[in-house]
Amino acid sequence: MNARRVYGGIAAAVVLMGAGAWAMAQKSDAPVAATPAASAAVPTAAGDPVFERGRYLARVGDCVSCHTAPGKPAFGGGLPMKTPFGTIVSTNITPDPQAGIGAYTEADFARALREGVAKDGHRLYPAMPYPSFARVNDEDMHALFTFFRNGVQPVAQQPPPTDLPWPFSMRSLMIGWNWLYLDKGTYQPDSARSAEWNRGAYLVQGLGHCGDCHTPRSVLGGVKAASDRKGELYLSGAIIDGWYAQPLRHTDRPTMAQWSSEDIVQYLQTGRTGQTAAFGAMVAVVQNSTQHMSTADLQAIAVYLQSLGAKSGGPAVPTQAALVAAAPQHPTAQALRNGTVEANSGAMVYLNNCNACHRSDGTGANKTFPALAGNSVVNAKDPTSLIRLVLAGSAMPSTTQAPSPIAMPDFGWRLNDSDVASVLSFARASWGNQGDAVTAGQVAKVREALKPVATAKGP
What we know:
The chain has helices spanning 3-10, 35-38, 49-60, 63-66, 106-115, 130-133, 138-150, 174-181, 195-205, 211-214, 261-270, 281-288, 295-307, 320-326, 331-338, 345-353, 355-358, 376-379, 384-392, 417-428, 440-450; strands at 80-83, 86-89, 238-240, 243-245, 394-395, 407-408. It is mostly helical. The strands form 3 sheets. The protein has a two-stranded antiparallel ribbon with strand order 1-2. Strands 3-4 form a two-stranded antiparallel ribbon. It has a two-stranded antiparallel ribbon with strand order 5-6. The radius of gyration is 23 Å and the shape is globular.
């Protein structure tokens, strides 16, 4: 880090602490916008290759999920995003000249996406992931501008302004944050890698902005590694808005990076594979974004993710497929079948609440009930998402190839903190899993976070 960044950022450091953690946090609880509305196009523009490329890239960037309020027109903004620092309201990015970005030139548009600066000069908060979008090349930026100028219906809806409490209301402080965390310059291909690998890296690091959720952040709120070139913390997993975004690289536990390319593509197209399923924030990502991506691009993403953290030598981490294959003969499965688990409170909770769907061997049912054996969520170092799934449940995405949004019900109403801790500790130590035990205190913390915020009522 050079001196300009150190001294430029130090003045803003205290008040900017945690600011970058806003990036993408809104997606986990944001309503899923209807895909047809997201692609409403001006008829005369349809068919133009540049326009169609822009439409496609807008889906890759998942712009609709954040810039569409429930029940409102696509891209009209107004979606409230709760953060620890106040509520950020997404902006109108339709071509309406007053309420939206209709007065933006292409240079204005590119500056907003790459530098986080609006046409009038005010600084954007990093809930808009411009540090990732900075990598988008000129050709794709032009296509995006073409789509948003000609392919989105203007909406004269003026969202309420974002009004954060002081000192976070001082947008000028983002200058210091940008000096620390904004690396300007478009993606530069790695000549030692294949074209497919570079395409995957470009999508993941840029418009896909996967690192904004799946990379841990510093005390100042910036991601600790903005790309694979910046270290092994990139895509190593992070807590984001009450969910644990799983590692997308090789670690000492099962992760997506171990999956076959076919499984990764299938997961991103449908939100499920034969052994696992999307939940939480990924539901909107799959439904509004990745299911619309080409198989070639998804394959490129798979190639890139499979390379991250891959090491030769040392003990191999068992894959989920291997653990699922061995699970029927595992002692845990045999004990559950034989009913010899009376002394194990977690196993008893599992038999009474989980066994019917996930089975005694933890293998679940193909593309319906995720396997628990070898599951990256079950084995994750941080059990936050697993706890939240049990307490509140979640539904799979509804996609073109897999339209049924199969849901896991919530069990928070019938299981106390000790019950949840014991059953999750049991699952994390069974069928070859190697997760740490879960405590009742951890469950209580997640349960408390899920409580609705009380609002004042009028007379």
